[in-house]
Each structure stands twice: as structure tokens, then as C-alpha cells.
């Protein structure tokens, strides 16, 4: 039986035997004799563990890896199956086609249903995960935005991105999204009812009223998006060196959706107000360095402002998809507070 037919959904089942088989199926002639696992990160959809490995034979493989796998109930895993398939596809097929800093993959398996997967990734220690609740500095946000240009620029308006599994949103996508958005928004507001201000409730109401039309509005430019580009999904090394992680929400679309989501949810409000134009300008210059042409900095800014709806959209869907936790609720509320203020600042009047 191959590793893909026997995929663990509990860290206890990441045994030396299973790891040996998986690594061998990915071209690594090793025997894992021992593996210890320690929980790391704060994933909302899947769990990540640091594996300390001992091999029987000499190998170039590292003795420490990060294992990411689908955990929780079958229902929860089934709900996340599309996201799990996305991440496997990114590491298998797309990571080498962009210039964004991403972890190296030592192995990637997913079940036919998508409800079970395991990724064996480069351990980025001593780099540290960003903290979405605390937010980030201006220089950290700038570093992430410039790194994202390395994702967007190489596949800018690349028609080969659009195939049977990745496509720009259609009328059917709009219908599906609208069928679940209003109920999920209601659940979101009920779950956080004691925390929400009038402005935040208005942002959710605006999302429900306008997201469908926004989703299918033709885009002038498209690229491969991360889709959930925020500080919790970034590892920071020395001198603000960044690595982008958590590739479960990849999709083609207006690339400024990533930048709008990043800045509006990860920067404290006063820092965002003071520096966002400059950061968007730095991102634009990085795009040009990756070969993008006929795209002005003013167009880039307009796309940024018109993409701010990405934040409440991901917040509402992310909250609904994640297993409820105290940190998760605080994080989603903090993100909504920041993004609602950004929308109110840059798209005057839409929130009343």
C-alpha cells in the first residue's frame, strides 16, 4: 500500500515506517529509525508538527522537518478538502514557477477525496511565525509585500494558469458563494456578537451585499494569488527575511487582493494610514523588476483600494471553516476591526 492510501490524520500515526515509505516514494533512499513530534504554529485548518528524525543510513535530508496534516473530525476535514488539495498542488506543480520565498517540500501526499494530506516541509527554525493579533511593523509589511511581487510577477496575465482546476471566478462560483456567504456571515456575527462595533457590522453587511458582483467583475490583470496573505502565514528570519507559508487558498485573480488583505489586516491602523501608499509603491517597483509592464503605480493603488473587500470575505469564511478557539475568535475580530477601518478610510461612504 502506498503512502497516499494510508494517510495519517493523527500525529501518532506519523510513524518511522510511514515516514520511511513516504520519503522513499519521493526519491529519498532513507530509513527513518525514530521520529519525535512537537506541535508548532497556530493553524486554523490543519496542524503542523516539528519532526526530529533519526536515520539508519547517511542522507542529505535534514534531521528536522515540519509535518503538516489534516486533523480533526471527518466532517471538518471534508470541509477543508479543496484547500488541502490546493496546497499539495502548489508545492508539487507551482512553487518552482514563481519567485516567492517558500519552504522546500520533501514530500507531499493527498487522498483522492482531499480530506487527508501530509506535507513534509523544510524546517525554517529559528525563523518565527508572525502574530496576527499583535500585528507587524511597517518594515515587516513592506518585506512581505515585496516578496509577494515574486509570486505575482512571474505569472502575470499567464493564461496557462487557467485550467480545469484553477480559473477566474464564474457566474456559477458567484452563485455558490452567495448561497453560503449570508448564512456564514450570520454565524460570524452571532459568534462575535458581544465584540462587534457598528462599523464592523456594517463591513460584514457590505460584504454580503456586494461580494457577488465584485467576485465576477472582469479584471484587467491577474496572477496567482496566495489568497490568505497575512502575518500569521509568514515566517520571519533575520533582518526581516520572509518565507510565505500556508498555500491552501491559491487562486488566479487581481494580485492586489493579496496586498490589500495583508496591509489592512496586519498593520496597526495608524501605521497603515501613514505608510500604505509607500508600501504599495515598493510592491509596484518589485513587480517591474519581475518583468511586469504597462502597469502604472496609480493603477496599482486603485486596484489596492478596490480589493479591500478581500479582508472581510476571508475573515468570514475563515472563521466559519476554522475550529472555534479563543485565540481564533480574537484574531478574526482584530482583523475585522483593522480592515473595516481601512475600508472606511479608502472607500468612503460604503459603510454608511
Short description:
It is built from eleven helices and ten strands. It has 352 residues and is an alpha+beta fold.
Q: For the record, give the distance between the C-alpha atoms at the N and C termini, rounded to a whole number.
A: 59 Å
Largest sheet report: 5 strands, antiparallel
**Rg (C-alpha, Å):** 20 Å
Spatial strand order of the main sheet: 1-2-3-5-4
* Name of the CATH architecture of the largest domain: Alpha-Beta Complex
SSE string, helix = H, strand = E? HEEEHHEEEHHHEEEEHHHHH
Number of strands: 10
Top CATH class of the largest domain: Alpha Beta
The secondary-structure class comes to alpha+beta
What is the molecular shape? globular
CATH H-tier superfamily of the largest domain: Aminoglycoside phosphotransferase (APH), C-terminal lobe
